[in-house]
């Protein structure tokens, strides 16, 4: 598993580095999506999570959810056109799960790509994500994750 500046990036996932999201491919062609450890580290403890509704189609670069922490309120932007097929209601009730179980129960939404090729063009496999993330963290002046 790549670890960049103390931030874990499991290599069985795919990443949208620009939007700080991880994607887990599911057997039915959908992806489970969540914030990376880097995103939660930068945001701090989440206090609210408001996803878009199931069935909604979201264009690339638009928000699938709004997340709020003590330091930040903003969109979780998707990297390619998708339809939302599930939302994590548990995360809405307990937003800090995104911090404590980032790659497990802290997932945000499950999506179906409108075009699978577009998804493949955006996502970076975990095995190749360390370099791009180190560059992004340096550009963002983010020192890293705290254990």
Sequence-ordered SSE layout with sheet pairings:
Blueprint: E1 3-4, E2 7-8, E3 14-16, E4 21-25, E5 31-35, H1 37-43, E6 46-51, E7 57-58, E8 63-69, E9 73-77, E10 82-87, H2 89-93, H3 97-100, E11 109-113, H4 116-122, E12 124-125, H5 130-139
Antiparallel strand pairs: 1-2, 3-4, 3-12, 4-5, 5-11, 6-8, 7-10, 8-9, 10-11
Describe this structure as you would to a colleague.
With 147 residues, this protein is an alpha+beta fold. The chain has one domain (3-126): OB fold (Dihydrolipoamide Acetyltransferase, E2P). The chain has five helices and twelve strands. It has helices at residues 37-43, 89-93, 97-100, 116-122, 130-139; strands spanning 3-4, 7-8, 14-16, 21-25, 31-35, 46-51, 57-58, 63-69, 73-77, 82-87, 109-113, 124-125. Strands 7-10-11-5-4-3-12 form a seven-stranded antiparallel β-sheet. A three-stranded antiparallel β-sheet has the order 6-8-9. Strand 4 (21-25) and strand 5 (31-35) form a beta hairpin. The radius of gyration is 14 Å and the shape is globular.
């Amino acid at each position: 598993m790549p670890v960049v500046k103390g931030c874990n990036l499991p290599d069985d996932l795919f990443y949208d580095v620009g939007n700080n999201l991880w994607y887990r491919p599911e057997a039915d062609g959908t992806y489970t999506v969540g914030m990376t450890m880097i995103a939660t580290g930068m945001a701090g403890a989440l206090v609210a999570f408001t996803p878009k509704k199931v069935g909604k189609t979201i264009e690339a670069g638009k928000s699938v959810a709004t997340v709020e922490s003590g330091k930040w309120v903003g969109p979780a932007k998707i990297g390619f056109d998708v339809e939302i097929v599930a939302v994590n209601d548990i995360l809405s009730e307990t937003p800090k799960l995104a911090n404590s179980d980032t790659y497990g129960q802290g997932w945000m939404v499950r999506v179906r790509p409108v075009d699978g090729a577009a998804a493949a063009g955006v996502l970076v496999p975990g095995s190749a994500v360390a370099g791009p993330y180190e560059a992004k963290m340096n550009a963002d002046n983010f020192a890293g994750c705290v254990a």
